[in-house]
Amino acid sequence: MKKVGLTYDLKTSYQGKSNDPKDANAEFDHPITIDIIARAIESQGYQVDKIGNVSNLLEKINKLDVDMVLNLSEGLSGRNRESQVPVLLELAGIPFVGGDALTLGLTLDKIMAKKIFIAEGIPTPKFFQVQSADELINRNHFKFPAIVKPRFEGSSKGLSESSRVKNHQELRSQVEYIVDAYKQPALVEEFISGQEFTVGVVGNDPPCVLPIVQVQIDGKLQLNDMFYTFARIDSDRLEYVCPAPISKKLQDRITELTLKTYRAVECLDFGRVDFRVDRRGNPYVLEINPLPSLSIEDVFMLTAKRMNITFEEMIGRIIKSAFIRYNLN
Ligand SMILES: Nc1ncnc2c1ncn2[C@@H]1O[C@H](COP(=O)(O)OP(=O)(O)OP(=O)(O)O)[C@@H](O)[C@H]1O
Ligand SMILES: [Mg+2]
């Protein structure tokens, strides 16, 4: 029986600091989520070794007896945090599911990812970076509204109702907040008013694009100025609609851009691309997640249900893609 190691960060093992923002551990998993994923892997005919986080991996790396690692670890801080587990596994010659250290670092840093999108002709909202609010003094020609995000975070960290800014004063105070609370540059992006979609992908050669999911907030699909904030994730105001009730033309365009983005950053085995579509129907790629959450209530798994695939089968498909890719099947 093949053995699959599991690497992850638990919410419960994160030692918070007193000046942490309240969403500091948003990206980490609940122990229950990890147990459910471990059982799903077992149901697909593998044995599971729960390795834990990057420090646990470092301690055990020379003694590990696994054929493959399913890496769900987000790491603690900095833009290379998601790359730490893959780079150690690569060094030790242990095969792993998902993109490598370069893909994970590149996509966690939203500005680096956007530079790749532009080079590949993938539409993405116009943007600039600010390291401190004082740099804004020379920026008088920017179009409002804009959205201010941390440069390298996920799980909607740093996003609240005040992230959408309508004038210079609001922009300045939000940039100050991001730089100060998240200790990193702020990404200022043109706000795309309209609809929002997120699209999962599984496999390689060729990757399979999953049914398109549309984000609904307060019962509305035309989100206009509404967006996905940290506070909304845990509320029942946000829902996922799948399949998205959109024209064939928009479906085809989103599918094409999803594949192009997945390939541009060299995602492997699975991933998820986030889009906004403006009022005229033009899609923009916001980001790609090469480590989308696999928890049962998350959007990736919701699509599995729509495809009549069980949660367990979807986990099996992702792991199998990696075994095939390494010729270990
Ligand atoms: N340019 C934009 N225009 C409109 N809304 C945006 C824009 N950028 C981000 N948003 C909103 O903020 C949300 C989070 O942004 P984004 O996907 O870039 O960050 P994230 O925190 O990495 O996301 P995730 O929660 O998927 O990990 C988006 O889902 C969207 O609702
Ligand atoms: Mg996102």
Explain what the structure shows.
The chain starts with a strand and ends with a helix. The protein has 3 domains: 3-98, Rossmann fold, CATH 3.40.50; 107-123 and 193-325, ATP-grasp fold, B domain (D-amino Acid Aminotransferase, Chain A, domain 1), CATH 3.30.470.20; 127-190, 2-Layer Sandwich (Dna Ligase, domain 1), CATH 3.30.1490. A hairpin with a 5-residue loop joins strand 9 and strand 10 (208-209). With 329 residues, it is of the alpha+beta class. The strands form 3 sheets. Strands 9, 10, 11, 12, 13 and 14 form a 6-stranded antiparallel β-sheet that branches. A 4-stranded parallel β-sheet has the order 2-1-3-4, sandwiched between helices. Helix 1 (31-43) crosses helix 10. It has helices at residues 31-43, 54-60, 84-92, 101-108, 110-119, 168-182, 230-233, 248-264, 299-306, 311-325, and strands at residues 3-7, 47-52, 68-71, 96-97, 127-130, 146-150, 164-165, 186-190, 194-202, 208-209, 213-217, 238-241, 270-278, 283-289. Bound molecules: adenosine-5'-triphosphate and magnesium ion. Adenosine-5'-triphosphate binds at residues 125, 147, 149, 153-157, 159, 189-192, 196, 227-228, 274, 276, 286-287, 289.
In short, what is this structure?
With 329 residues, the protein is an alpha+beta fold.
**CATH homologous superfamily label of the largest domain:** ATP-grasp fold, B domain
Order of helices and strands: EHEHEHEHHEEEHEEEEHEHEEHH
Stretches where pLDDT is under 50 for at least 5 consecutive residues are none
Mean pLDDT: 92
Radius of gyration, rounded? 20 Å
Q: Which molecules are bound besides the chains? A: adenosine-5'-triphosphate, magnesium ion
Strand segment tally: 14
CATH-assigned fold name of the largest domain: D-amino Acid Aminotransferase, Chain A, domain 1
Instruction: Please tell me the CATH architecture of the largest domain by its name.
Output: 2-Layer Sandwich
**Share of β-strand residues:** 15-25%
Given the helix and strand composition, which structural class is it?
alpha+beta
Distance between the termini: 12 Å
Major sheet characteristics: 6 strands, antiparallel
Top-tier CATH class of the largest domain = Alpha Beta
How many discrete structural domains?
3
Tally of helical segments: 10
